[in-house]
Amino acid sequence: MNSRFFALIPCAGTGSRSGAPMPKQYRSVAGRELLHYTLAAFDACPELAQTLVVISPDDTHFDAQRFAPMRFAVRRCGGASRQASVRNGLDALCETGATDDDWVLVHDAARPGITPELIRSLIAALAEDAVGGIMALPVADTLKRVDAAGGDRIARTEPRSGLWQAQTPQMFRIGMLREAIARAERDGHDLTDEASAIEWLGHAPRLVQGSLRNFKVTYPEDFALAEAILTHGASR
Ligand SMILES: Nc1ccn([C@@H]2O[C@H](COP(=O)(O)OP(=O)(O)OP(=O)(O)O)[C@@H](O)[C@H]2O)c(=O)n1
Ligand SMILES: C[C@](O)(CO)[C@H](O)COP(=O)(O)O
């Protein structure tokens, strides 16, 4: 049987850095909840067998009706960290029939600038790859290291050559990713992305060019940037 493609959207964070009065994925941007844009991009990709949204067990904001008629499933199995939410989401996908050989595209709910074209470019680049990989952007700015005291004085300038910023989606075989996260957990690591777990297993994920518009909404000023990007996208 051919491998299928699943999407997993970790959506159980609190957005503590965002300054929003609710988890940032539910904040309204350009007239829609941030999560709406994320789901819409995946809904527009019929090549995906299913999109699973992982929310917190005590989430009081998520309302599936507001996202109708988009295709997705929801599980209240979010964990204390992003890694735990992804692990629980992978378990849920397997309970509903996904297999080790199927691919999963893990994408932050908080990256609403993702587009169907970017999702397809990742799938096209990686579908024949032995490991999988991630969307990412080469670092564009000059990098400064602060002194050991962690203040605001520059200790030195770091070479940026060969450095990329990790984005999502991150695409791996479900079996390999579950094994990688289990290994990371056994070794006491709580990692910030899927690629780190795959690396910990000893593999080298590929980098696929992402886009600035696919930035992660993290800080208060990011909502205005998302609004500008998403308003422009809506008018195209
Ligand atoms: N326990 C967690 C923590 C994060 N996430 C999700 O992982 C993505 C990226 O995480 P991040 O931006 O760090 O989100 P938050 O944890 O919500 O933000 P903060 O770190 O500022 O609290 C988000 O879509 C977030 O909802 C999750 O599903 N479960
Ligand atoms: C997965 C991720 O979005 C890649 O950049 C990121 O690692 C998760 O967010 P955090 O801000 O590092 O917690």
Automatic annotation (TrEMBL):
The keyword Nucleotidyltransferase applies. InterPro entries: IspD, IspD/TarI, IspD/TarI_cytidylyltransf_bact, ISPD_synthase_CS, Nucleotide-diphossugar_trans. GO terms for molecular function: 2-C-methyl-D-erythritol 4-phosphate cytidylyltransferase activity. It catalyses: 2-C-methyl-D-erythritol 4-phosphate + CTP + H(+) = 4-CDP-2-C-methyl-D-erythritol + diphosphate. Belongs to the IspD/TarI cytidylyltransferase family. IspD subfamily. HAMAP family: IspD. This is 2-C-methyl-D-erythritol 4-phosphate cytidylyltransferase. The lineage of its organism: Bacteria, Pseudomonadati, Pseudomonadota, Betaproteobacteria, Burkholderiales.
